[in-house]
Task: inverse folding
């Protein structure tokens, strides 16, 4: 058996696990799946514990990104969501090994899913900073389509633009033509872009 | 009435089934990993399948108000294909996942030496990960297979109380009752077990360690057979509490041995499910219907 066969009821504490990842980063693969239930037993937040594990990975950015991607790819939805939520912290400017845009494949993977928790978690400040315009607009349209509240999307006002407004208007027209309800969030997005303000296409 | 189906292959079922199950009182299910009808030929097919029953399927179930857990293992049919044996190497990383509540389903198909090895190796993994195990009995040569199954269990490090021996019938229940293992019954439209025979078995052997499931899959099966057993129990004079014990508290007790069976508070003992908690339009993403988008 591989060394990753640590018992599920690992007696290790969150603190010990973080210390072990700092000294032997590959051990994150066995600590990460159990981290939330161990943290919960300690009265800590599972997502925060998982974020601390990821932040404890030492080494250059490229190494950190490789390991973070592996943790994501081997993760269940709760683990994947925790990775997505940790991306802004992994890219914090004060970190010498900030990941930059190298973790974008993780965001793109999550946006391809049909799981509302993952799509919502993918559209945090990290995606607002790095995701290209086409992908961001498609993601926003998908958010409206899936019924995820648009106010949960980071950078909504800053990144909404005239092209997104066109897409949302077309979507609304399609719904109206079918006699179906236009989600209120579609109007929220249009209101951000289509303002009576004479300044072109941007609301703020 | 609250129903826990401890063995059902929801991947093979439609959303209509989720709706019907919820309407009938099913609030939690365990999906054992198993054969898909078409034999797989590589580890990648297995990992995508495991990811699906730990990812997409629980999400789909949650949209219909049903809690979904899984058991993970290499089934005996495919254990006979050398190309699939490498699945054993990836099992450890799945056996630590939050929604994995047992190893399984394990056991025999044709009782080959390869099946012996893989069965014993996975019971060792169960012991190592402190998980219970779901073991099925073979379709053919069933009594011999059941005895051999119990021999392997006795030689393993897993306690009998952490094992379900499933798909039992009148011929095989006795030896399992004596072994201390839990007794599983798959109630089918016309094979394995039916609801009336099930009630007779409960009369004869009592309600301790009794597990009733639909084992519904891609074959001729019915995801509401658990409910039919509940109805047959009531018609035979069993109380509501007896029904709750067999169809809820017993499977909860068994799978709770994993330490990972986290059920919603609304399903706690004494909290009867309410219609308003339902599904469909009630399944929300912090206020917004998930289903609205998912159905588009």
Result:
């Amino acid at each position: 058996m591989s060394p990753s066969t640590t018992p599920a009821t690992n007696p290790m504490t969150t603190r010990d696990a973080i210390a072990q990842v700092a000294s032997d980063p590959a051990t994150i693969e066995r600590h990460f799946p159990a981290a939330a239930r161990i943290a919960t037993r300690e009265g800590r937040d599972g997502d925060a514990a998982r974020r601390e594990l990821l932040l404890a990975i030492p080494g250059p950015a490229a190494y950190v990104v490789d390991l973070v991607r592996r943790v994501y790819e081997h993760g269940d939805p709760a683990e994947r969501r925790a990775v997505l939520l940790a991306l802004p912290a992994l890219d914090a400017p004060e970190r010498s090994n900030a990941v930059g845009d190298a973790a974008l494949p993780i965001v793109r993977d999550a946006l391809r899913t049909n799981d509302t928790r993952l799509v919502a978690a993918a559209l945090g400040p990290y995606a607002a900073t790095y995701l290209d315009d086409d992908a961001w607009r498609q993601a926003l349209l998908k958010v409206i389509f899936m019924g995820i509240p648009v106010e949960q999307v980071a950078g909504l006002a800053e990144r909404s633009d005239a092209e997104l407004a066109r897409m949302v208007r077309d979507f609304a027209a399609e719904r109206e033509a079918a006699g179906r309800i236009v989600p209120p969030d579609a109007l929220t997005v249009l209101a951000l872009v289509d303002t009576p303000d004479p300044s072109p296409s941007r609301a703020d | 009435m609250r129903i826990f189906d401890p063995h059902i292959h929801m991947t093979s079922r439609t959303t209509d089934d989720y709706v019907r199950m919820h309407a009938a009182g099913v609030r939690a299910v365990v999906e054992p990993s198993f054969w898909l009808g078409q034999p797989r030929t590589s580890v990648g097919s297995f990992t995508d399948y495991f990811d699906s029953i730990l990812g997409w399927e629980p999400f789909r179930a949650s949209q219909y108000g049903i809690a979904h857990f899984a058991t993970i293992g290499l089934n005996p049919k495919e254990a006979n294909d050398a190309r699939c044996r490498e699945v054993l190497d990836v099992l450890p990383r799945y056996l630590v996942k939050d929604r994995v509540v047992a190893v399984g389903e394990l056991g025999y198909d044709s009782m080959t030496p390869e099946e012996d090895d893989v069965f014993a190796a996975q019971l060792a993994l169960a012991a190592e990960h402190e998980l219970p195990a779901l073991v099925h009995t073979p379709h053919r040569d069933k009594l011999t297979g059941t005895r051999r199954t119990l021999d392997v269990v006795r030689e393993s490090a897993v306690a009998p109380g952490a094992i379900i021996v499933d798909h039992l019938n009148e011929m095989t229940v006795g030896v399992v009752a004596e072994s201390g293992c839990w007794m599983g019954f798959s109630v089918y439209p016309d094979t394995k077990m039916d609801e009336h025979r099930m009630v007779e078995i409960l009369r004869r052997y009592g309600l301790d360690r009794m597990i009733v499931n639909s084992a519904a899959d891609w074959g001729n099966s019915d995801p509401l057979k658990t409910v039919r057993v509940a109805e047959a129990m009531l018609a035979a004079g069993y109380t509501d509490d007896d029904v709750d014990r067999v169809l809820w508290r017993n499977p909860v007790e068994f799978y709770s041995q994993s330490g990972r069976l986290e059920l919603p508070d609304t399903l706690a003992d004494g909290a009867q499910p309410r219609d308003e908690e339902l599904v469909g339009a009630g399944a929300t993403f912090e206020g917004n219907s998930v289903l609205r988008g998912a159905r588009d």
